[in-house]
Amino acid sequence: MNVIIRLPRICDYEELIGVLAKNCASDEAVDALVFEIPTGGFLTTPAVALLGAWGILWGAKGRRIEITGDSDVCNYLSRMNLFDVLKISFVEVFQRHPEAGRFIPLTLVDDNASCKRAVDSVCDLIIHQCDNARDFLPAVEWSVNETVDNILRHADASVPGVVCAQYFPAMKRLDVSICDMGCGLKASLQEAMELPSHSAAIAKAIQRGVTRNPEVGQGNGLAGTLEIANSNGGQFHLWTGNAVFRVNDQQISEEQFSVSIPGTGLYLSLDTNRPVDLLDTWIGKPSCNYLESEAERLSESDGIRVLENCAYTGTRSSAEQLRRKVLSLLPDLDAPLVFDFTGVKSASSSFLDELLGKLARELGAETFRRRIRIVHASARLQAMANVVIGQRLVSSTLSVLSTYQDAGVARQQISSESAIMRSTELNSSSIIDRVSACLAGFEGLNVLYDPPCMEATPGRCDTTLPPTLNGPMAEYIVSQFPSGLYTHQQQAVEKVLQRHNTVVATRTSSGKSLIYSLPVLNNLLENPSSTSLFLYPLKALANDQHLKLRAAIDSIPALAAIADKKDHFVSRYDGSTPDDQRQSIRSSVQLLLTNPDMLHFALLQWHEKHWQRFFSNLSHVIIDECHEYRGIFGTNVAYILRRLNQLCRKYGSQPTFIATSATVSEPKQHLELLTGLPFDCIGPDKDGSQQGRRKFWLVDSDQHYYDCGRKLTLQLAEQGLSVLTFCQSRTAVERLMSRSGGDNRDFVRVYRSGLSPQEREDIELGLRNKTVRAVFTTSALELGIDIGAIDVVICIGLPHSMMSLWQRAGRAARAGKEGAIVLIPASTPIDSYYANHPEEFFARDHEPLVLNMTNRRVVHQHYACAVAENYGDEEQLSAEVFGSAFETVRRLRLEGRLNDEIFYDQEPHMQTNIRSMGEGVYSLEERSEGTIGEIDSLHLLREAYRNAIYRHGGKAFRVQAIRPRERRVQLRREYTFNDTTPFIQTQIRAKRFYKVDEYCQLTVATVGIDAKEFLVNVVEKDRSGKTVQSWPGNSGMRPYSLPTDATLLRIHRDLWISMTNDLGSLEAKSALQSCERLLCSLFPTVAGPCDTQDFSSASQILKSEEAEIYLYDQVYGGADLAVEAFDRILDLLEHSKTRLDNCCCTTDEGCFRCIDNPREDEVTSKLATLRFLKTLIDTISLETPRIQRNEFPEEDLLSSESTSICPTCQVTVSPSQKFCMNCGQKLGDD
To answer: Above 50 in pLDDT, residue 473?
Structure first.
């Protein structure tokens, strides 16, 4: 329904609050609000701000606002930008004033850039309208800076705040209004103190030094703004919840409303005839000078220019980045570090505290005086800086004093200076000790497993140089590594120089990139025309190595002379390479850094046209992070490398292969299967690298595990530690980012797939220079991208593969430094199992890397690509290079038994998706931001379905439409904390049985299946978990089809009927589904560590009154993973029963750690599930099965899955063909 609200003729913010509270106390049934403005009416500046902020929040909930009435007032509101902010169409019938007129229209504030725009606009207004702007501007600028910074750091709002201002020349009065729809002062300060009311919250907030978190802020903003209003004799109005506080010409009054409204609002009205000097207020009156007086005489050339590093000096976040940079530079400097404030006319206290106050606290007072200098700062800036430095040192002193007092030492017995020094010592204590102290003080945290520290190991070096090294190369090694190479580096380099294919499997940060760089550069000195190919699974890895190679070449004069003759001697070549550079790269590159995708799509496909020179001179192929080449991606890469070998033979080259990884199981066997070539191995037993001291903890909390991980991340980051927090999905990292609050927006970031290259590079750079201290990430940051030394790694949800665990742990304790790893189990059966059996978790070995070289689709696609690369001549494909699978396909082709469309495609490379084998990727597009990322077909059904709330970089977007033909997803920006959940139903059809164990009432088998996933419902919930809206049906989303392999557990009709009669129909169905979820979650406990995204499960009841449970590979064509459950089905059932028996929940419905079902409309029962499991266990353990093994020959696996006959020419055709390839007859859909 629509609600009509008639505004009073003169509408101030107080009247508007009353109107809103009366009409919108319950907005459940309201579709739209219509505000009627009476003739001759007027809205004050704070009322406009409040209406704008409140309207944005109302619109974010999907409701409309309309404004009608007096045309003059509507024109005024249009000038104030209200209609644009609220997305109301309005035809303007007036001439807009210039930007620096007498008012500042509503300006949205949600990041640093928008804060700066708002502050600059207010300053421009003052400069253009006030005669005494010089005496008035600094105080207003300070107030606005501090207040808008509060919106970012304390409001926790889901929608932007607003700022507007107006100057009244006749009264010489400036009105500034700032409003947000966040949590309000009471909720914000609740973290630091108990407050009985909103009035009490205001009373505290306007006191100097009161803040939600003293580690973040100092509580100067509102107190200082009130001081400025009092000094000026102006007005200061502050409202939040149901309370308002007013100061009018130093006269104080308070009031309470009957109903609370969200957020906080500030109205500041100043008399421009009364100048305000900050030096006359406590804001600019320091009690002590912490800045050396001779600072102005220091050399400018040695300084850091503040404006070059901080475009905006109004918020903490911009200063925080510079402070982190300074801390990273100080250890390498002998002379004092100089801050050059040239051009900085003003700065907020928040900025100065974040830059200098916290720096003084971290260094200590004496060290700060000795190491830090300031030049070209105004007297006002120096005074304000001394104030915040003093505040910060005093707060640090009191913190340490309270620690001593708790230990029984009287506060007055300890001097201020000794307490400051003690604080500095605490900040410089070891990383492990600091994390240990944080965990000990974290409320509600339980340490489940606390193994001893892994002590540091010294590096073992060898100064012996391989005799075949070229002279300049030997000189380079001696100059760069005077202690010699690590022993494993020396051995590996020698093997590569002897032209042995070599795989190096040593721990993270052991210098593996040097192993392949040295032989490549040495070969260039001997053969300047030689080329080398560097393959990385991620583009970001290539970015890192490109810089390192370039630096090494520049350090060797003989190589630098060769490189200087070519524009692209060392070059990346990937999807981000500009088109206008590609031809030049192809013609001149000698060290090419790329990825398997580009090798497949660009190099191999166009070898004759563009790459003959490169392949003819190819001497080395480097395969970095080779453990990434597993599953379907690895199988594709295996055939790509075979195609590369085939072309190298054609062009007369025989490159040496070098592979590296820190977490590969059986490295020699894996690389030989991956490449089809023999390999030597330098394994972990030969690792001579240096290792820092490292400590693990396994913890859980009374809070939700995501909340625990988020708060622990922020707490450690606030202490100055760099923290990398791994989550299990892209959705999870975005939710954590959005719930981390505006306080941390600039030093907390999200890193995941789908980000733009620039976004990824910015985050990587931020981690290296410490301007970014906390990153919520998926597995995207597991690999060896150079992000510097990370202090703490947190895993929210246990890594389900040992490769992931050690790759993540390897991010900490690099280069001999300390590191800490905190593991937080998720509320899932598998994580709960390992929480109860932590020794089993840490005792696991690296899982084997699986390649399915007989995957039908992979073999067919790469066969077609290889034929195309050999100009259609199938006879040229070498059996020695490609193996038996290609030989079988060629024979089936000659016999006319294999006629898949891929063999007749003119561009088979473009039909081959080497990473997922799905339908390709969709671009994610938003009208104002353009393309923000991309997503594949599998994740599309789970994350970007129609009506989904999709999160990217901490922002929320609504999926408006999906264009399958154009591969586009259309998004719309939304400000919301709501989340959407898809409910997906899976249907399974078994096609082929391989291994079968037939029991009297059960069948256990490995099978080939078709799995089809359907979207059946979408539900949107708010932060409290309340359902806001739902969309039943498939929302127009296509089903996702997957032919793959599975382990099947089929319950025969008689046993299923018996279970149904025993448990009840609904209970038996619930027990079947609970058993399925348990088996799927606990599958890694019997199959070995594996990525949970590689397998899935489903259960169904057939029309024949049989029940089935499937564990299947989430990979097109299968990956030989889920079939591991066949031989361990009894162990898997017993682990499931153990998990139920040991679960700490007390109700029969269970919990997320055992069987609780995310589907709200289904009831679960632990008792029924236990009886169900016991029946299955007894049946399997007490019977001897009839064993049947259907061994299908390779030619059956590689031939078409099923065939039919063309009705015209009687030729065999596959069901996927639309036309007969022999006669052109159109084939039917069936």
So the answer is: yes
